[in-house]
Specification:
- This protein is α+β, with helices and mostly antiparallel strands.
- A hairpin with a 5-residue loop joins strand 14 and strand 15.
- The protein starts with a helix and ends in a 7-residue tail after the last helix.
- The C terminus is likely disordered.
- The chain is flat and about 135 Å long.
- The chain has 30 helices and 28 strands.
- It has 6 domains: about 150 residues, Beta-Lactamase; about 110 residues, 2-Layer Sandwich (Beta-Lactamase), CATH 3.30.450; about 100 residues, PAS domain (Beta-Lactamase, 2-Layer Sandwich); about 150 residues, Heat Shock Protein 90, CATH 3.30.565.10; about 120 residues, Response regulator (Rossmann fold); about 100 residues, Four Helix Bundle (Hemerythrin (Met), subunit A) (Up-down Bundle).
């Protein structure tokens, strides 16, 4: 009889499994096919869009140069070549004005679009990005649809094959599996006593798996009892093992012959040696291990063991192999078999060293408490006395038996303020200690004074269980203090009188110090003002009479004046050091430049004496460091000047060494040297080696004292080693941290009319100073108008216009420089004011800046310093930067013109150089424009010709950066590299910068040429 579907479903596990498997596989394959199709569609579409976006970005980038050059032919060719692709329906290029440059058919749409993209076209011009237009691209969906359809057919065909193959394999596999399962069930029925525990299936039916489950049930029942027994044994073993490992104690065992047969691992750790070496012995016999109380305790223990008696808490004192001693407590019990036959001992050992040590500490503490000179009281939480020491009995007269259980209040005399007791109990009730003075009564009625310390004692849980009082009898001390108090009152009056006297003396000293500072400042001004005129006139005479006797005389006057100026500067520096007003201003600077500047200033003097001056340093010197360059140069100049002064023949070497961030400047000479006594007095103010040194060589004796003070203020020092008659070595050690290169300071190239075209108003009350200032400024090309005081200068500003800058002396009649600067700042805030003062103190500079001045120049006036200050503050006439404005690839922003090389090239003929500049401005004003036009038109021949011409021009005026760029451009064109257009644009930028700088120097503009 043919069975129905439900009957077969109920009776055959194989039928259910085959049907369910085929159904599941079919559904899975169908679902997988759909998912793969959707994923294929998504992947294809996503890939097409990504390719489209990349193509749009690439096209926008490639069209940047043609669009910037308005090369419509190149744009049209590129766009139509792109539009020929099957996936691109149309391309439209629009310029920055919105005009369509190219359109390959955006109006003739023939199919479904995938997407339309729009990308801006940007051209990079140096550091700027210029929008030169945009590109629009439409991508067709037709290629994508064809690819998707092909992929879908492949996925569907593969899914059908998988379903068919899987169904056939399942039919064969399930038929092969179910029959052996019946045999396995029968075999398991016979292995009910086996050792393998198998999981029991749930929800069994009356089929093959049902019969196998019954067999497994019988198998599990058979082995269950055995597993329980084994688990109990393992649990007991694990419990004992855990107890043994977690316990700080150790376990041991003896056999029936009282030989050790077991020690736990802790025993070896406690005694510090391998205890297993005692196994098989009747007592612990180990190398270096010794039981110290074996005679008193060990024999008794052995007797108990011999009688098979139990023993507990037998303490043994032993010495370990490392020499340390320990105490351990041993307990043991005999154990027997079921018949009562003695089998041995089992027991435990415990390290009780800490307890024994604590007991010893308690014993010592008890002795200390009993023998303490201070009385000690311990009460319970109810303030009832439990303990007092012998000192308490000696001081108060009460014994422990008399006071036990009572309150300490019986000692009160009534003379202690109630507030004291209130404060004491408030602190104790809050769990805080208290200390203070109490007046109590002895047993014999005598009043005595105690200074006590009271503290609560806490249990481990934080609750207060006792109170402790430690009190010192200070009666005799109080009597002495009372006597001292009487003397103190008298002394305080004497001190007050003396303090008043000292205050008067202090005020007088401060007044003297202020007078000294004012004197030094005024002295500086009074000397610097005429000295400015002397040095200025000397420079004029020396310049106008070069090679004549009067010129030589002027040189001597200038040298003497500069020497006097150096002495004045030394005195001012020393005064500032004494007043604590000398400021150290660390800034980044180039170390080699600092050293070169210092040696440059003394080189002429060294060569004049026929001395060899050299600088030595290793390759590890940092390029840039942070420090006060001015002060470092000041120290080096002083050390080098001294070396030159005291050396008649030989050489002077300035050597630099580096130790981490420590730089050592060593100045060594072959001069007269010094004795140890002279070295000892060397750094004292106004001291030299001896009186003859001052007479022969001159000097104030302040230079080295100032230099050492400066070095120490900068965290360094100066030391000296010298041998009389052989020379000296001065070592300046400074901590100079290496820093990255900072912005390079501006320089003012000499040898030209640096102030040409400037109109300057100068306020100066001294005629000599006006003459010097007029010559100095007019020689630089400026037009100068003078006023004799500040009021006259204001009048000139009101009646005449067009002044570029105001120079003003500080101390003048009628109106001084400070007031003049304030008025100008209110009337013409954009007009810079520069102060000229003979005061050299730092506070003078701060005062000038505070009243509105733009800069401050000290007298005697240095021409370069004054010109630099003017150019730095006059708008539109800034100093020529040492660094080019445009950074070029592979070059570290070099200077536009190497002025030193240019001066050397034409032997100082500045007029000839200026003539070259004028010719360059006239003949090459349009060269940057020609370079850009040639680059945009891809005219490489014109670019090559211009580059070749500019190499010659740049070489003639020492414009090395421009020469290098022109050479790179010409080489790029010869080699056919693709960067020639960019190099041409960069060369045009550099040429613009050079022309702008030369126009500013000569006063020309494009219209002039």
């Amino acid at each position: 009889m043919r069975l129905g579907f439900l009957d077969r479903w109920q009776s055959s596990f194989r039928f259910r499994l085959v049907f369910a498997t085929i159904t599941a596989i079919t559904l899975i394959v169908a679902l997988y096919t759909v998912v793969q199709y959707l994923r294929h569609v998504q992947t294809a579409e996503s890939g097409q869009k990504i390719q489209a976006e990349r193509l749009a970005d690439l096209m926008a980038e490639s069209l940047a140069q043609p669009m910037f050059d308005f090369n419509t032919v190149a744009v049209d060719l590129a766009a139509r070549a792109l539009g020929a692709h099957a996936e691109i329906q149309w391309v439209r290029v629009i310029d920055s004005n919105g005009d369509v440059v190219v359109d390959t058919g955006s109006g003739a749409q023939t199919g479904e679009l995938l997407l339309t993209l729009r990308r801006p076209i940007r051209y990079r011009d140096g550091a700027r990005l210029l929008d030169v237009g945009n590109i629009q691209m439409a991508f067709s969906r037709t290629p994508l649809n064809a690819e998707v359809y092909k992929g879908a057919m492949e996925i569907l065909f593969g899914g059908i094959l998988v379903v068919i193959g899987t169904v056939l394999a399942a039919l064969w596999a399930f038929r092969s599996i179910t029959r052996p399962l019946l045999e396995i069930a029968q075999g398991l029925d016979q292995l009910a006593a086996g050792k393998v525990d198998l999981p029991l299936p749930r929800g069994l039916r009356d089929d093959e798996f049902g019969r196998m489950g019954k067999a497994m049930q019988r198998f599990r029942d058979a082995i269950l009892e055995r597993q329980r027994a084994e688990a109990e044994v393992r649990e007991n073993e694990a419990r004992f093992r855990d107890f043994s490992q977690s316990s700080a104690d150790w376990f041991w065992e003896m056999d029936a012959e009282l030989r050790f047969c077991y020690f736990s691992d802790n025993f070896s750790r406690i005694i510090g040696t391998d205890a297993s070496k005692s196994l098989g012995q009747t007592r612990i016999e180990l190398p270096g291990f010794e039981v110290l109380n074996r005679a008193s305790v060990g024999e008794e223990l052995l007797d108990r063991v011999a009688r098979h008696d139990a023993f507990r808490g037998v303490e043994l004192h032993a010495r370990k192999p490392d020499g340390d001693c320990l105490w351990f407590s041993v307990s043991g019990v005999p154990y027997y078999d079921r018949n009562g036959v003695f089998l041995g001992y089992r027991g435990v050992g415990q390290d009780v060293t800490a307890r024994r040590n604590a007991e010893e500490d308690v014993r010592k503490l008890s002795l200390a408490v009993e023998q303490s000179p201070n009385s000690i009281i311990i009460t319970n939480a109810a303030a009832e006395i439990e303990y007092v020491n012998e000192a308490f009995t000696r001081i108060t007269g009460y014994t422990l038996d008399e006071v036990r259980g009572s309150s300490p209040g019986f000692l009160q005399s009534g003379l202690t303020p109630s507030e004291t007791y209130a404060s004491l109990w408030e602190a104790l009730n809050n769990g805080q200690p208290w200390q203070g003075e109490l007046r109590n009564r002895r047993k014999n009625g005598e009043i005595f004074v105690e200074y006590g310390f009271f503290s609560p004692l806490r249990q481990a849980d934080g609750t207060i269980s006792h109170y402790l009082a430690i009190k010192e009898d200070v009666t005799a001390k109080k009597q002495v203090e009372d006597e001292l108090q009487r003397y103190r009152l008298h002394l305080e009056q004497m001190v007050a009188d003396r303090t008043a006297q000292l205050a008067e003396a202090k005020d007088a000293a401060e007044a003297a110090s202020r007078a000294k500072g004012a004197f030094v400042a005024n002295m500086s001004h009074e000397i610097r003002t005429p000295l400015n005129a002397v040095l200025g006139l000397a420079r004029i005479i020396m310049r106008d009479n070069a090679g004549r006797k009067s010129g030589h005389t002027a040189t001597q006057i200038l040298e003497a004046g500069e020497h006097l100026l150096g002495v004045i500067n030394d005195i001012l520096d020393f005064s500032r050091i004494e007043a604590g007003k000398l400021l150290i201003e660390p800034r980044p600077f180039r170390l080699v430049v600092c050293v070169e500047e210092a040696t440059k200033l003394v080189a002429e003097r060294a060569h004049a004496k026929g001395l060899q001056l050299s600088v030595e340093h290793g390759d590890d010197m940092p390029a840039w460091v942070e420090g006060d360059r001015l002060r470092i140069e000041q120290i080096l100049i002083n050390l080098l000047s001294n070396a030159i002064k005291f050396t008649d023949s030989g050489r002077i070497v300035l050597s630099l060494t580096r130790h981490d961030e420590q730089i050592q400047f060593m100045v060594s000479d072959t001069g007269i040297g010094m004795s140890p006594e002279q070295v000892r007095r060397l750094f004292q103010p106004f001291e030299q080696a001896d009186a003859s040194t001052t007479r022969k060589y001159g000097g104030s004796g302040l230079g080295l004292a100032i230099s050492r003070n400066l070095a120490r203020q900068m965290g360094g020092d100066i030391r000296v080693e010298s041998t009389l008659g052989k020379g000296s070595v001065f070592v300046l050690s400074l901590g100079l941290r290496e820093v990255p290169p900072a912005g390079v300071a501006a320089v003012v190239p000499g040898g030209s009319l640096r102030l040409a075209g400037l109109r300057i108003l100068a306020a100066e009350d001294m005629e000599l100073n006006r003459i010097v200032l007029e010559d100095m400024l007019e020689s630089e090309g400026a037009v100068v108008v003078f006023a004799e005081h500040g009021q006259q200068a204001l009048s000139l500003l009101e009646t005449r216009a067009g002044f570029d800058v105001v120079l003003t002396d500080i101390q003048m009649p009628v109106m001084d420089g400070y007031e003049l600067a304030q008025h100008i700042h209110q009337l013409q805030p954009d007009l810079p004011v520069i102060g000229l003062t003979a005061h050299a103190m730092p506070e003078e500079r701060d005062r000038c800046l505070a009243c509105g001045m733009a800069a401050h120049v000290s007298k005697p006036i240095d021409c370069d310093a004054l010109v630099g200050a003017i150019l730095a503050n006059v708008k539109g006439r800034n100093v020529v930067p040492e660094v080019a404005a445009v950074a070029l690839p592979g070059m570290a922003n070099p200077a536009l013109i190497d002025w030193a090389a240019l001066s050397e090239r034409y032997q100082g003929r500045h007029a000839f150089a200026e003539k070259l500049f004028a010719i360059l401005l006239r003949t090459h004003a349009q060269t940057p424009l020609h370079l850009r036009d040639a680059a945009r038109a891809y005219d490489v021949e014109t670019l090559k010709s211009l580059a070749h011409t500019l190499q010659g021009v740049a070489g003639n005026i020492e414009a090395r950066a421009l020469f290098s760029q022109a050479s790179q451009l010409e080489q790029s064109i010869r080699e056919g590299r693709g960067d020639c257009l960019a190099l041409g644009e960069q060369l045009a930028v550099s040429m613009d910068a050079l022309l702008a700088m030369l126009r500013e120097r000569t006063g020309h503009s494009i219209s002039d040429v």
